[in-house]
Amino acid sequence: MLKFTLSKKLAIVTGSTAGIGKAIAKEFALAGANVIVCGRNAERGRTTVNEIKENAGSADFIPVDIADETSIRALFEETRDRHGILDVLVNNAGQSQITHFLDTSGSDLMAACAVNLQGPFVCSREAIRQMRAANKPGVIVNISSIGGLMPAMYDVNQYCASKGGLESLTKTLAFEFASYGIRVNGIAPGFVETDMVSSAVQGPIKPRGPIFDPARLLLGRRGKPEDIAAAALFFASEASSYVTGQTLLVDGGFSIG
Amino acid sequence: MTEFSGKVALITGGASGVGRATAEAFTRQGVRVVVADRDQRSGLQTLSALEALAPEADPRFILMDVSAESAVSIAITQVHSWYGRLDFAFNNAAIEEPAHGFIECGTEFFDEIIKVNLRGVYICMKYELQLMQAQSRGVIVNTASVAGSMGMAAVPGYVASKHGVLGLTRTAALEFARCGIRVNAVSPGAVDTAMFQRFAQSNAGIRDATINSHPMGRLGRPEEIASAVLWLCSEGAAFVTGHDLHVDGGYLAA
């Protein structure tokens, strides 16, 4: 059997009430994990849980505001109390806003960092705290972005800066905790069609940048949430047991073009 | 039945180490594997092992040295005539370099290691891509190395050859993406194989120093590289091309 199984594993997937996070939660549940679906939108969260259960999977919804450290601590405590020590954390919750750089304030930058960098930072801290206390191996998967590695789009400088920070965090945590059996890897999606992307591009500022150039879509299509979910499953499972500190580019070849 | 059932894979250097582990992993998934290697004895042993792994396994062995273009050309033609298709090509054949030193390496050894590790990969890719282009379908995985992304003292030929393999990987990925062909690389750290044992004997203390430079504190197992190759060949990796997947116990993140 290919080792892409998460049988009997407990996984927390942040921002899993929609989009990429939801696709990851469903893929993990299909692979046998008990999935903690979390986010701010309780209605969408419960819908996701029900969809998983209808497919004979196991899931629970716990609300969290990823920009709020106290809310994150509560998420991890409640998960431990109800379900036990987690095996897998996917830091997927993210936000983006399109603003002209000259109109972008320091607090716009900090708002992006609160979700995209502080969120994963605090979640990883609480996950590793529990894993270390239980002397248990574990896996963290950070969903960053092609924008955190190279210029792909204009007018999202604060988003890209926050995702760049997340890239660094993947490596430093991998390095520091490798000897404890904790693996930390990242996935950098290219252009993936989701609601978050659609609503951002329908905003007042016309989106522009190389990521929109059809000539850069080497494989002839944009990404789907399922492409990211498959990569997340590879990292969460024992199939990647010797992989840590790596960011997998799931970008249809954008970065080599 | 899996998504891999009935597909055909060619593995160079498939008679030992990472190549053999990948041949076994593919065979368990129902892939029909062609093991290509210049070691006849190990190749035939591997063939027997694969036949025993799965009742429907349909593996073959081809005696092939990647430095010999005519042998590679004949091999690809042979694969096509046996199975009528080639879905996956794992260009894994390579030789190691003893830790002799930049100057001590010498031009003769340098030429030899480039001939096998880099030119050999080009030759294999050339014939594989011709076949895959005609099918409008195919996946290539090249074995690079952590040495393909950083400098390492005393092994200039190996480092240069593996940097080159990444270059070939990205170039082919760019050029053939629109033909339905994905090309990626896997970069192992130190893996517990006969190749590593030979390398470790070339210099006292190298074994421990190498292990300690991997944050995970151990060598990789051949099957851990194999599962990454399998993933890159799977439908789950359909949006991944031109990527170098490090399977290195954190070596490159350190």
Rg on CA atoms of chain A, Å: 17 Å
Helix content percent band of chain A: 40-55%
Determine and state the CATH class of chain B: Alpha Beta
Percent of residues in β-strands of chain A: 15-25%
Kindly report the spatial arrangement of strands forming the biggest sheet of chain A: 3-2-1-4-5-6-7
Q: What form of chain B results from the Cα inertia axes?
A: globular
CATH superfamily of chain B: NAD(P)-binding Rossmann-like Domain
CATH architecture term of chain A: 3-Layer(aba) Sandwich
Amount of helix of chain B: 40-55%
What can be said about this structure in brief?
With 257 residues, chain A is an alpha/beta fold. Chain A has 7 helices and 7 strands; from the N terminus they run βαβαβαβαβαβααβ.
Characterization of this structure:
The complex is a heterodimer of chains A (257) and B (254). Helix content of chain A is 42%, strand content 15%. Chain A is built from seven helices and seven strands. The termini of chain A are far apart. Chain A has a single domain (10-142, 176-250), classed as Rossmann fold (3-Layer(aba) Sandwich), CATH 3.40.50.720. In chain A, 53% of the residues are buried. Chain B has helices spanning 17-28, 40-53, 69-83, 102-135, 156-176, 194-200, 206-212, 222-233; strands at 8-12, 32-37, 60-63, 88-91, 138-143, 181-188, 244-247. In chain B, helix 4 (102-135) links the parallel strand 4 and strand 5. Chain B has 254 residues and is of the alpha/beta class. Chain B has one domain: 3-Layer(aba) Sandwich (Rossmann fold), CATH 3.40.50. Chain B has a seven-stranded parallel beta sheet, sandwiched between helices. The longest helix of chain B is centred in the middle third of the chain and has 34 residues, at 102-135. Chains A and B meet through helix 5, helix 7 and strand 7 of A and helix 5, helix 8 and strand 7 of B.
Topology:
The complex is a heterodimer of chains A (257) and B (254).
Chain A: E1 10-14, H1 19-30, E2 34-39, H2 42-54, E3 58-63, H3 69-83, E4 88-91, H4 106-133, E5 138-143, H5 157-177, E6 182-189, H6 195-201, H7 225-236, E7 247-250
Helix pairs in contact in A: 1-7, 3-4, 4-5
Chain B: E1 8-12, H1 17-28, E2 32-37, H2 40-53, E3 60-63, H3 69-83, E4 88-91, H4 102-135, E5 138-143, H5 156-176, E6 181-188, H6 194-200, H7 206-212, H8 222-233, E7 244-247
Helix pairs in contact in B: 1-2, 1-8, 3-4, 4-5
